[in-house]
Design a protein that fits this description.
Elements (H helix, E strand, L loop, with lengths): L1 E5 L5 H10 L3 E5 L3 H8 L10 H9 L3 E4 L10 E4 L14 H10 L8 E4 L7 H14 L8 E4 L18 E5 L2 H12 L5 E4 L2 H31 L4 H8 L23 H11 L5 H27 L8 E5 L14 H11 L3 E5 L25 H5 L3 E4 L8 H7 L3 E3 L14 E3 L1
Length: 428
């Protein structure tokens, strides 16, 4: 069997490799010619994906890449893994889905299966993607080709997370569409969970991320409340999670990052308005999580004030640009917000991240493109008035940070077990 996977990013590339390992010939399709070139040369552009896996798949003839959408007519199935960001008004932007549909539609073979994996609001697959595919292919969904939705479930940076072992939810436009999609994913994924419709599968992904967003907002709010009472939220969470039932630990931070939690809940908020419904929990959680960078900035100002310094004119280093520990993914990272806020207050800002040596172009923070991570040395770190820990990378030597930095603002509890000087560490 030969399939195409459109979008070779953090979702599409590992999925391609898993299908290739499972005896399926995979044609990776991407509009970025640099990615196509690197795949065909056996190189990886995502840190946690081993180049050896790409080389093995390419050498075996089970994986190749192209930017030519005309080759879609070679395959029996197309899986779409493209971004679904928010626009400047925090409304869903499904333009990447639509443009992908426009690119594959004219070349779609009769009897082929199309599966959308991009996170989106219920109704996108059938209400938005389907008309584009039908118009440009001249085929009817559910009759001449199959249409399904299966949400991506990636956990970058988690060494125990394997694509083959993460259960796959699948919903089809018709029972036959669902069966076709279940059979496809059954070739590469150990457990496939069929649901009644594309909409049910779309809603499943939103529920997963809304659940996380709301609970992270709760501990972020409690962090602020308990700090005012002189209590440590991290100690309290450690104690609470000893309860063997009825509690699940979530952890506070400097804000939300990544392509899922800061974005996906608002897809449902937007869609719910069409039905005259409000999503108050989602909107409140968004307000709380969005306010966290400002809280970290205020704590940094308090720490500097204790040393008789102002934010204006101070040199401040942010440790961790990636949105999550031990990955190189910068998407929606709250560190960008912190850089902007501190710079606006007159600080001289820089960052250190062992996984992000230089800032790559981003949709919303292009003004930081090309800025490089500072070197990790006593001379470099000691030259800053304050260091703010934004991401808890394991590769950072926190004992050296304690030895070198005069003032540390810790938003990730990274310094909890590190010997430090009295008054040196401020929790945020």
């Amino acid at each position: 069997m030969k399939i195409a996977i459109v979008g070779l990013g953090y979702v599409g590339l590992p999925l391609s490799l898993q299908f290739a390992k499972s005896g399926v010939e995979v044609l990776g399709v991407d509009v970025d010619p640099a990615k196509v070139e690197q795949i065909n040369a056996g190189r990886s552009y995502i840190q946690h994906i081993d180049a050896a896996a790409i080389q093995a798949a390419v050498a075996a003839g089970s994986f190749s890449a192209t930017a030519d959408f005309r080759r879609i007519n070679e395959v029996a199935a197309v899986i779409i893994c493209v971004p679904t960001p928010l626009n400047k008004n925090r409304e869903p932007d499904i333009s990447y889905i639509i443009s992908t549909g426009e690119s594959i539609g004219p070349h779609l073979a009769k009897g082929a299966l199309v599966v959308l994996e991009s996170t989106t609001y219920p109704g996108t697959t059938e209400g938005d993607l389907r008309p584009v595919l039908e118009k440009l292919s001249g085929l009817r969904a559910g009759v001449d080709f199959h249409l399904a939705f299966s949400p991506e479930r990636e956990d970058p940076g988690n060494p125990n997370s394997k694509v083959a072992e993460i259960p796959k939810v699948v919903g089809g436009m018709t029972p036959a569409c669902r069966e076709k999609a279940v059979a496809l994913y059954g070739r590469a994924i150990k457990t496939v969970i069929p649901v009644s419709s594309c909409g049910a599968a779309e809603a499943t992904k939103l529920l997963e991320n809304i659940f996380r967003s709301v609970n992270i907002a709760l501990v972020n709010e409690l962090k602020v409340v308990y700090a005012a009472m002189g209590l440590d939220i991290w100690e309290i969470i450690r104690a609470a999670k000893t309860k063997p039932f009825g509690f699940m630990a979530f952890y506070p931070g400097p804000g939300l990052g990544g392509h899922c939690i800061p974005i996906d809940p608002f897809y449902l908020t937007w869609k719910a308005r069409e039905f005259g419904k409000q999503t108050r929990f989602i909107e409140l959680a968004g307000e709380i999580n969005t306010a966290m960078p400002e809280y970290v900035v205020n704590r940094t100002a308090e720490a500097l004030n204790a040393a008789r310094k102002a934010v204006n004119g101070s040199k401040i280093l942010l440790v961790g640009l990636a949105y999550k520990a031990d990955v190189d993914d910068m998407r929606e990272s709250p560190t960008f917000i912190l850089l902007d806020l501190l710079k606006a207050r007159g600080a001289e800002v820089a960052y250190y991240d062992p996984h992000v040596p230089i800032i790559r172009p981003t949709r919303e923070h292009g003004h930081w493109t090309g800025v490089a991570s500072v070197p990790w040395s006593r001379e470099s770190i000691a030259g800053f008035d304050a260091v703010v820990i934004c991401t808890g990378h394991k590769a950072v030597n926190y004992q050296e940070l304690a030895d070198w930095a005069p003032c540390i603002v810790d938003s990730r509890n990274a310094m909890d077990e590190i010997p430090t000087r009295a008054g040196q560490v401020w929790k945020a």
